[in-house]
Specification:
Strand content: 5-15%
Strand order of the largest sheet: 1-2-3
Radius of gyration: 30 Å
Distance between the termini: 91 Å
Largest sheet: 3 strands, mixed
Helix content: 40-55%
Structural class: mainly alpha
Number of strands: 3
């Protein structure tokens, strides 16, 4: 068996795709990606181009992605986006798949008696409610409905699983399944936007503290609390006559 040549980048562990029939059971990220998800943090820091301070997602420099990791995340996000965007409004075949799900639902669950026109109108209502959702989300919603695990209605009451869901109810459950996947994709997109966290040196922090202390003394006559726990900034003399509540005010004669 040949060993990998020194200097070659090892491929990261693959990111598993979700089970679209059961999106509530989202697979875990591989360790190299989970550590980044746990470490991302929104921080106000200067833009690397303009220098203007603004909030931005950041990662410690030691956790920034290499080319192989970034490419794998980008490909995974594209796969999730493709799965979420395959709807009847964009793909005619998707409508046929949803119709099949609805047909099975009508055969399996009770509904109020309707004539042929009523059945047709009800079918149109379902398609209107679901035309911007992928078939797998509708299928996952019906899977949860059959198991009695579709959650509660908008008033917090459990659904009556003995009957067919209304078009709005089925949409509500299906959107919840879709959001499980879109939330995962959004998390990864945020990771891809993350910047290296700017870690200032101790000397820089001390310099900024001194400048801030000077500004506060000149503006308000109040120094910052120093590291020694006193009311004075380390290395900066306190303003004359300042009272922080621990000593009597000095009254010049």
């Amino acid at each position: 068996m040949s060993l990998p040549r020194k200097g070659l980048m090892q491929a990261p562990e693959p990111i598993p795709l979700p089970d679209y029939q059961r999106p509530d059971r989202m697979p875990s990220f591989p360790a190299w990606l989970a550590s980044r998800v746990a470490s991302i943090n929104d921080v106000v820091q200067p833009d690397q181009i303009t220098g203007k301070h603004r909030p931005a997602p950041t990662l410690p420099r030691s956790l920034t992605f290499n080319e192989a990791e970034r490419a794998m995340i980008e490909d995974h996000v594209l796969e999730l986006a493709a799965a979420c965007s395959r709807t009847p409004a964009r793909d005619p075949e998707a409508e046929g798949e949803i119709v099949l799900v609805l047909t099975k639902m009508q055969l399996a669950l009770m509904a109020a008696k309707q004539n042929e026109a009523g059945v047709e109108a009800r079918g149109e209502a379902y398609l209107a409610a679901l035309d911007d959702l992928p078939p797998w989300a509708v299928q996952a919603a019906m899977h949860a409905w059959h198991r009695g695990e579709a959650g509660n209605d908008e008033r917090g009451r459990p659904w009556d699983y003995n009957w067919q869901p209304s078009p709005a109810a089925l949409r509500r459950v299906a959107v919840g399944k879709l959001c499980r996947v879109t939330t995962r994709a959004d998390t990864l997109r945020k990771l891809l936007r993350a910047e290296p966290l700017i870690d200032y040196s101790e000397e820089h922090r001390q310099e900024m503290l001194q400048r801030l202390s000077k500004l506060m003394r000149e503006t308000f006559g109040i120094p910052l609390v120093g590291k020694d726990g006193s009311s004075r900034t380390v290395g900066v003399a306190p303003a004359e006559g300042v009272n922080c509540g621990t000593e009597p005010r000095h009254n010049p004669a």
